[in-house]
Amino acid sequence: MTLSQSLSPWVVPGRRHVRTRLVAVVCGLGLAALGAAQEGLDDTLPLGTIDFPTSGSAQAQREFVTGVLALHSFWYEEARDRFVAAQALDPSFGMAHWGEAMTYDNALGTVPGAEHEILGAEVVARMDALDAAGELEWTERERGYANAVRRRFAPGTSPGTRREDYAAAMEVLAAGYPGDDEAAAFASLALMALPGFDREQALHVVAVASRLEEVYERNREHPGALHYLLHVYDTPTFAMMGLRQARVYAEIAPASSHALHMPSHIFRHLGMWAEVAASNEDSYEASVRWQERTGRPLNTRDFHALDWSLDAYLRLGRFDDARRVMDELDAVEEAIRSRQEEWGQFPEIAEALRAYYASAAPP
Length: 363
What we know:
This protein is an all-alpha fold.
């Protein structure tokens, strides 16, 4: 599939559904009773605003929408917790399984590791088994989302082919439901994830950005529109186009460390190094709060933000601040060792940051 490929619209009749508009602050639902899988969920996560009607129960819909908000900020772990919670609250809620599968999409490869394809396929297989048994409920529109994620994790095909088939399915869904901003946002992200997408090619950028800009005009707090526009404008050529969204995204989704980090992609191209430093300071602190709140191991903190902070400090000549990054690495390393936690990718990250500091900081 090419970006210019013509796709005929797919129009299907809609069904009655629960229509719930949720702002960033989401009501708590007594989720502690759902068991260990839901422990540590926060009931007040500012992550933006979307309008995503589904056929789920009102309680499950709240968790589902929080999951989608987190998904738009590539906060996959938090999103997964929310979708699992929605499944527990409403076992027949098909879209909660779609959401869980989408937490393994890793569209732009922001999460390292090769296991995402396998894990996503496992979720889809479980969804399909429940669906075949008649245990899941869907509207016609929701079935479009389910069919698309089936293509995304279809067995027996290459990852590149899956992405092409998924992008084609999302284009059909978006064309069939032109009022669905979520279909538009996820279809745009699917195009950006295609192997041949080039952010330096104006035609590629316009094909994606034009639709996302429309979503942004309708909803200035849509985290997907804001986030994906920052990614599509993440080049020296187009960075100035993303400065508007860079000023907004962190403000509407401050619970997400990635949302706090992303504006620095634009700031970097524009030489705004003080803003790069500030963005990534906030980003790392948000990841620390989330790691501590959820009881996850220390290696789940956003050390990518420390990397960018260090780079900004060194460029700005803020060597005391750069030294504090090294101190933080030392403290985390000692804490992981003393707690006997899994190391994850921390050793490789710490080695790279220490090498960069040694090469760039004054003796």
